[in-house]
Write a structure and sequence with these properties.
This protein is mainly beta. The protein has helices at residues 72-75, 90-95; strands spanning 13-15, 21-23, 27-30, 35-39, 47-49, 59-61, 67-70, 86-89. The longest helix is centred in the C-terminal third of the chain and has 6 residues, at 90-95. The relative contact order is 0.22. Bound molecules: zinc ion. Zinc ion binds at residues 45, 61, 63, 65, 89, 91-92, 98-99.
C-alpha cells in the first residue's frame, strides 16, 4: 500500500491513509537519542512520527519515504540554514526530491 499523502490544503498538517492527523513540527524529540532535532524546513512535505507505531520512533515523510537524521554534509546542498544534525526526508536528502517527485 502506498504511503503517499497529498497535502492539498495546509502544509502544516496532513491526514495519513490510516486516518491519523499528523502535524508539522519545528523539532522532534527522539527517545533513542534523548534529545530533540530540528526538522529541515521543506514546503510541500514534512517528517512526522508514524502514529501507527506505539511508543515508536519511526520517522516518516508525508511523501511516503522514511525520515532520518542527517548531518550538515548531507543536507547542505539543499538547505544551508543550520549547521547541526536535522531530521529530514531520506529521499529528499539523497535524491534532492521527495518520493512523489516534488522538490520542496
Ligand atoms: Zn519526503
Amino acid at each position: 500500500m502506498s504511503n503517499v499523502i497529498r497535502n492539498w490544503n495546509s502544509p502544516k498538517s496532513a491526514t495519513t491513509l490510516s486516518g491519523h492527523i499528523v502535524t508539522k513540527q519545528d523539532a522532534l524529540y527522539l527517545k533513542s537519542h534523548e534529545r530533540a532535532y530540528q526538522t529541515l524546513p521543506t514546503a510541500m512535505h514534512f517528517v512526522y512520527y508514524d502514529p501507527t507505531v506505539p511508543r515508536g520512533s519511526t520517522l516518516l515523510c508525508t511523501c511516503g519515504a522514511a525520515g532520518g537524521i542527517f548531518g550538515y554534509e548531507g543536507y547542505k546542498r539543499w538547505c544551508s540554514f543550520i549547521a547541526t544534525e536535522v531530521i529530514a526526508c531520506s529521499e529528499f536528502i539523497q535524491q534532492g526530491k521527495h518520493a512523489d517527485g516534488s522538490h520542496e
